[in-house]
């Protein structure tokens, strides 16, 4: 990586009067809503928009202004933050919003998108005079709500002062991966990381499913690996959601996990790499969604190991 900087303090800059920004947030789902709240808390002027307005309206109580259109949300904004479902959705929404944006405004594109999409979005930014930052984030609901995300960022060094206070409001750490956002170096790193998350989630669900099928108490499995190289906090966190039936509200939903798994597979295909686990995981997520678990935590892919209703 050409340029890596860690920012672990997210308070000083955000508390400074000249670091205040007007931010247009497009997309107020699990992540976008949490990021918008933290931007308000950090002293920024925040306008929010969501296709389903009801998902954006609760943010008015936090101090954000709810816009009727995406164009209204980005008009005169210093920074535009997109946190939508996928790259196609971002293209559609920003195609409508970008003409209303101020030329020279920074665009923090945080939706997890495919490699092709990042290049297309960078071209859209150039067309409308926006400064594009490929800036996906690592973290789920809880770190998003507490402003402890990790921001992976690529974009021009000149102009970073515009986006830095926004990064610091939503994240505890920023990792810069380069200056050419169109090369999608931040998204590449995000997809690699997500491939591990997908694999670990799939392995957790299958281990618990096999334990159920074989009549093994999961606690015996956890005791066996405790403290050793096979033990990991993520296993316990996801297993607890399954075993304690705490799959809602999701930290990261099954439907979104399927989308990301397919992006990982596609990225591998484009570069001559077979992603067998990611491909199989995408199918597991799809089966779980078809069984009614689409909006539950991605750990609910556990149910894809069973015929519908047989895991209850």
Description:
This protein is α/β, with parallel strands linked by helices. The protein has two domains: 12-181, NAD(P)-binding Rossmann-like Domain (Rossmann fold, 3-Layer(aba) Sandwich); 189-305, N-(1-d-carboxylethyl)-l-norvaline Dehydrogenase, domain 2 (Orthogonal Bundle). Helices cover 46% and strands 13% of the residues. The chain is built from twelve helices and nine strands. Strands 3-2-1-4-5-6 form a six-stranded parallel β-sheet, sandwiched between helices. A three-stranded mixed β-sheet has the order 7-8-9. Helix 8 packs across helix 10 (233-243), helix 8 crosses helix 12 (276-293) and helix 11 (254-270) runs antiparallel to helix 12 (276-293). The radius of gyration is 20 Å and the shape is globular. It starts with 11 loop residues before the first helix and ends in a 19-residue tail after the last helix. Mean pLDDT is 94; it is low at 1-17.
**How far is the first residue's CA from the last residue's CA?**
47 Å
Task: Name the CATH superfamily classification of the largest domain.
Answer: NAD(P)-binding Rossmann-like Domain
Under the CATH scheme, which architecture of the largest domain would be assigned? 3-Layer(aba) Sandwich
Q: How many strand elements? A: 9
Strand count, sense and closure of the main sheet? 6 strands, parallel
CATH fold descriptor of the largest domain: Rossmann fold
Helix fraction bin: 40-55%
Calculate the mean pLDDT score and round it.
Answer: 94
Count of distinct structural domains:
2
- Structural class of the helices, strands and pairings? alpha/beta
Q: pLDDT below 50 for ≥5 consecutive residues: which ranges?
A: 1-17
Rg from alpha-carbon coordinates: 20 Å
């Amino acid at each position: 990586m050409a340029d890596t900087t860690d920012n672990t303090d997210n308070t000083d800059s955000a508390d400074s009067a000249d670091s205040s920004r007007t931010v247009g947030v497009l997309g107020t789902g699990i992540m976008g809503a949490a990021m918008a709240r933290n931007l308000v808390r950090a002293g920024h002027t925040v306008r929010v928009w969501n296709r389903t307005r009801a998902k954006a309206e609760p943010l008015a109580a936090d101090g954000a202004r709810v816009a009727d259109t995406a164009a209204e949300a980005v008009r005169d904004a210093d920074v535009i933050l997109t946190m939508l479902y996928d790259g196609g959705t971002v293209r559609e929404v920003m195609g409508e919003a970008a003409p209303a944006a101020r030329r020279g405004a920074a665009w923090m594109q945080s939706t997890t998108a495919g490699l092709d999409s990042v290049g297309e979005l960078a071209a859209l930014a150039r067309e409308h005079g926006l400064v594009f930052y490929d800036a996906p984030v690592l973290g789920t609901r809880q770190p998003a709500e507490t402003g402890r995300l990790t921001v992976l960022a690529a974009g021009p060094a000149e102009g970073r002062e515009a986006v830095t206070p926004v990064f610091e409001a939503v994240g505890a750490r920023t990792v810069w991966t380069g200056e050419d956002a169109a090369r999608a170096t931040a998204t590449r790193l995000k997809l690699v990381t997500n491939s591990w998350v997908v694999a670990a989630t799939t392995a957790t669900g299958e281990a618990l499913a096999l334990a159920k099928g074989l009549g093994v108490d999961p606690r015996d499995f956890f005791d066996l690996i405790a403290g050793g190289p096979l033990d990991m906090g993520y296993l316990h966190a996801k297993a607890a959601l399954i075993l304690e039936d705490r799959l809602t509200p999701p930290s990261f939903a099954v439907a979104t996990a399927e989308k990301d798994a397919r992006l990982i597979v596609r990225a591998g295909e484009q570069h001559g790499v077979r992603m067998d686990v990611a491909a199989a995981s995408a199918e597991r997520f799809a089966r779980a969604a078809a069984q009614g678990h689409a909006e539950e935590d991605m750990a609910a892919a556990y149910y894809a190991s069973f015929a519908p209703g047989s895991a209850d």
